[in-house]
Structure formats: structure tokens, C-alpha cells
């Protein structure tokens, strides 16, 4: 039987934007992204510094102003999207912590009730033993 938690993080509805921000954060925070992005940057610089400059066709010569603009735009868009994902994860973590607290509280109440039952049984057993000893 699954416990009925009022705020189960697994059942939170997700909008398209939330799913997208989680995906962007998962991709943007990976070594694969870092390595691929590094290769793209070096490729861009190599292409504009050596390959296309031989024919005078470089579209973004050193100091790579267009590349800087694209990197700044990417950072300006990617940072808030990753922050949205982190905020969502923090909310999920908060709800999971609240659920853990609720479970622990319920377990504590049950354990206390069991202690009371065991104490009552022990007292009844002690009374029965005392009564049997008196009747001897």
C-alpha cells in the first residue's frame, strides 16, 4: 500500500517549460557538453584564423567579436534556465524532506503506541505473577 503523501514530488505536474529547463540543465551541466562545446570553440577559431583566412573568407576574424556575442547570448539564456531547473529541484527536495519528516513523525507515534502497549502488557504480566505468588 502506497502512503498518501500530500506533496509527493514524483506526482508534481510538469509544464513544457519545466521539462525543457530540466533537460537544458542536464545537458548543459555534463562533461559531454563541455567537451563538445570546447571542440566547437576551437573549430570556430581554427576555421576563422587559418582555414578561411587563406581565401579572405573569414566571417569572424580575431578577436572573434561574433563568437563573443554568441557566447554572451548563450550564457544569458542558459543561466536563468538552469536556475529554474535548480529552483524546481530545490522545491522537490523540500517536499521530499517534508514527506520524510511526516513518515518519521508517524513512525515515532506508532513506536510510542507500541511502547505503551508493551508497558501495559508487562504491567499486567507483573500483576498476574504477583497474584500467583500471593495465592501460593
Write a brief caption for the model.
This protein is an all-alpha fold and 136 residues long. It has helices spanning 16-28, 31-51, 65-134. The protein has one domain (17-134).
Order of helices and strands: HHH
Number of domains: 1
- Please state the CA-atom Rg, rounded to the nearest Å: 32 Å
Low-pLDDT windows of residues: none
Based on Cα principal axes, name the global outline. Answer: rod-shaped
Q: How many individual β-strands?
A: 0
Instruction: Let me know the largest β-sheet.
Output: none
Give the number of helices: 3
- Report the β-strand fraction as a percent range: under 5%
**Kindly state the mean pLDDT as a whole number?**
90
Distance between the termini: 51 Å
Helical fraction: over 70%
Structural class call reads: mainly alpha
